[in-house]
Every structure is written in C-alpha cells, then in structure tokens.
Amino acid sequence: MLSAMSSEDKSKFQKIYSNYKRLIYFTARKFLKDDYSIEDCTQRSYEIILNNIEKIRNVDSPEAKYYIYKIVRSVALHMLRDEKWYVNDVEYEDEMISTIEDEQENVEKIIINSEWKTVVEAAINDLDEDDKFLLECRLEAEMTYAHLGELLGISEDACRKRMQRIRRKLAEEVEKSR
Question: Chain centroid to CA 74: how far?
Fold first, then answer.
C-alpha cells in the first residue's frame, strides 16, 4: 500500500507514526488490556489512518491529534464489541445487583451511582455541541488548553474560562436534580 502512495503522503505517514505512536499505543491500552489486542488495534488504526491520509492536512495540528485519537478509540471499542468484551452499563449494573442481593447497603450505592451517572449524562447531553466537543477533547483526548484554544481560535485563558463555565453549568444541573 505504501508503494502506491505519493512521496508527500509517505512522509506525512512517517511523521504521523513518529509523532503519535505513543498516543496510539496508550489510547489502545486504555481500552484493551491484552497485548495482542492492543497490537491489533494499533495496526488497524494505522491502516485507517493510511487510507484516510488526505484528511490530515497538518500533522502537527491539534485537529490531527484529535482525529487520530478518535480513530484509535473507535477501533478499540469496535474490537471490544466484536469480541464480546463490551458489556453495556445496564447489563453490568444488573449483574452486580444480582450478585450482591444480600448486601442492601452495596445495592443502594450501586443504584445511587447509576442514578448520578444518568443525571450527569443528561446534563452533558443538554450542553451545546461546542461545549460537548470542548469537554470531550479536554477530558478524553487530554488536550491542553493551549491546543484547544488554537483549535477553537481563542486564547488559552479564554479556553480555560470556558471550561470553568461548562463545569459550573454541569454542577448546577446536577444540583438541580438532587
């Protein structure tokens, strides 16, 4: 496949590999615990990146980093689902509740945690798309405020302040649900 690529695309892919191999590996490792699965995930991710190399304009940009992160995350989640390692939250909570029926206090904690999780998810879903994107980039992709500010065309301080407002808004929504 590399032989059919232009020299520009080859150098872009080599730069992606050298700049993002750690991000790709640790993102795969975040979701997958098995070394073989991690290796498969990174391989599949590199194939997808290679097939979509033209979508990455600037290898060093925050957009490229986020794009690569999303590819690896998606591949890892698909692998979990395909291998039936993926357990959705409701099934997991039902299983936990059934295994500790006799321990009323633990069951109550699980239910409370489940309710809070639902409240927080609802509050996040109520955010506008830009705020959701900022929250996801900051918390999941672990992007810095400087990169996020660059991505959004605002200063680092403005980005930090915006994130504070998002957190405050989420806290207020959760507090209303009490």
Answer: 8
Instruction: List pLDDT tens digits, range 1-40.
Output: 555 678 888 889 999 999 999 989 988 988 888 889 999 9
Sort residue 63 into left (φ over 0), alpha (ψ -120 to 50) or beta.
alpha
- pTM assigned to the model: 0.48
DSSP characters over 106-168: HHHHHHHHHHHHHHHHHHHHTS-HHHHHHHHHHHTS---HHHHHHHHTS-HHHHHHHHHHHHH
Residue with tokens 């929250």: 135
- φ, ψ for residue 121, nearest 5 deg: -60, -40
Closest to 40 in 3D by CA, of 48, 113, 61 = 48
